[in-house]
Every structure is written in C-alpha cells, then in structure tokens.
C-alpha cells in the first residue's frame, strides 16, 4: 500500500444528483465539488448509503466516481464505496476505483446472505481490497442496515493478517464501547471514522479524529465548530454545537431520514440533487414548504 496521510476532519457522504426521471445528473458534481472545497471538508465518500448505492447500476457507480475524481482535482480526498452483496461486482468496482485515481476504497458487509463469522467477512473482502492494493481499504460497519454484527475489533486484528491495505473502519453504529476499543486497538493502529453525525462529540471524546456523514454536506460549519471546540478542550461549546446537529437530524428524520430529507435540504441550499430513486418516495412540493419552515425554526438559515 502507498504511504498515505491518515484521514482527519470531515468526510461528506455524498448524495447522488438525479433528474426528476431518476437519471443521474452528472453535471451537478462539478458545482457540488466546489461546495465541498468551500465548506472546509477534507474528503468525500462516494456512492455509500447516502449515495443510494443499492439503487445504482455498476456502470453508474463507475461514472459517478469518475466525475468526482475529476471534479476534486486533488483538492480533497475521494473515497469510493465499492460494497455490494455480489463480491465480483465489488472487485470490479475496487479495481476501477484504483484505475480512476480514487484516494481510498471502502466496503459495506454483504447483508442478504450474511457472513456467519469474522473469517467469512475477511474472506469476502480479501479480493475486493486486493483489487486496489495501493489504496487504504476501510470496512464500512453499519449493522442497522446490513444486520451484520460481527466483532469489529476482531475483524481489524485478524483482517490485517490477510488484507495488507486494511486501514480501518467507517463506524456507523452506536456501540461506543466497541468503537473506543477499535480506536485504541494495537496502540491506535487503525483509523476509526465516526459515522453517526448526531453523536460526533462522543466519537471525538473517545479519540476519533475523522467522521463520515451525510449532514456534513449541508451543515459543515456546525461540525467544524464541534471539532474545533473539542480540540480546544471547550466541551460546553462542543456540546452546544452538537445540540444544533441533533435539531437538524430531528428534522431529517421527520422527512424520511438522512437520504430523503438530506437530499431535499441539498436542493434548498442550491445544489440540485433532485429526488431519490424508489423505493425512497419522491419529495412533494408541500413537503418542501414545510421543510423550509422547520429549518427556519431551528435557525438553520442563521438568526
Ligand atoms: C445510517 C446513515 O445513513 N448514516 C449516515 C449518517 O450521516 C446519518 O445520515 C446521520 O448521522 C443522521 O442520522 C452516514 O453514516 C452514512 C454514510 O456515511 C454513507 O452514506 O455511506
């Protein structure tokens, strides 16, 4: 694996811009990338949950990644999510990510047929990571979606023996005890990327230094403020900013969660991400009016 600088700061889990008919609106990615630069975000995680990867074809995922790498122009790190229930598709995506010039790769566990053991999970990921041997590989742990609740610490320790480019884990779970364990495993040998935006302060308190999240796309300053306050040891301010994030997350939950609600907020801030693909329902005009009002009430647009 190449020598690389570990992740630090905010990594935005990107939305996939779409036209009203569901086709990918690739042209938006240039403007979106500039927004990422202007927001002070260090990287993007492309075609993950927020990017609706399960609703995209392999060819679309490749093209979306190519647009992001091109638009980034080295100004921020581009991590390709290459996960799939189909290991062979995942290998193809991983190889493509390396050829395209992605900075790193990540993969979620297969969730339909689930690995029964850590050994099986390692076996599943081994060729995927090996298809991009020079890039850091991150396990995307998200038991709420995959139903895979294997020990992450055990995966990291045993996985490192067989996956030389295993860099760490994108930890989207609220088991903070396990998360802390992973951060301190083998004297901090692994990167642990915090995954739940509404609890970022908890991950930072345990020693995480980077997070991957969907709400960073449209509220970067809230999270940059949390990071700054934590670095300065100003817990009261960090907590106050975290409460702002919680208010935002409460709003997106009301509108169907991070993908549906978040995409609608992106449209409201002027990055035309459009709607989601079914089975995520379209956003109605009246919902936009009500969302705008709810965001105003929590001071999203400023006082
Ligand atoms: C379950 C879920 O979608 N989690 C989000 C969070 O950013 C989430 O939207 C946020 O914490 C609000 O709950 C990210 O961890 C997902 C993510 O990184 C991705 O899109 O790959």
CATH topology name, in short, is TIM Barrel
Average of pLDDT:
97
Poorly predicted regions are none
Broad structural category:
alpha/beta
Secondary structure: number of strands? 8
CATH architecture: Alpha-Beta Barrel
Largest sheet: 8 strands, parallel, barrel
Estimated helix fraction: 40-55%
What is the oligomer described by this structure? Answer: single chain
Widest sheet: strand ordering: 1-2-3-4-5-6-7-8
> What radius of gyration results from the CA coordinates?
18 Å
Q: What's the overall geometry?
A: globular
Unique bound compounds: the ligand CC(=O)N[C@@H]([C@@H](O)[C@H](O)[C@H](O)CO)[C@@H](O)CC(=O)C(=O)O
Ends: how far apart? Answer: 48 Å
Task: Indicate the CATH class.
Answer: Alpha Beta
Whole-number count of domains: 1
Q: In percent terms, what proportion of residues is strand?
A: 5-15%
Can you tell me the CATH superfamily?
Answer: Aldolase class I
The helix/strand series, from N terminus to C terminus, equals EHEHEHEHEHHEHEHEHHHH
Q: Number of helical segments? A: 12
List the main descriptive attributes of the protein structure presented here.
TIM Barrel; carbohydrate metabolism; 303 residues; eight-stranded parallel barrel; binds ligand SI3; globular; lyase; alpha/beta
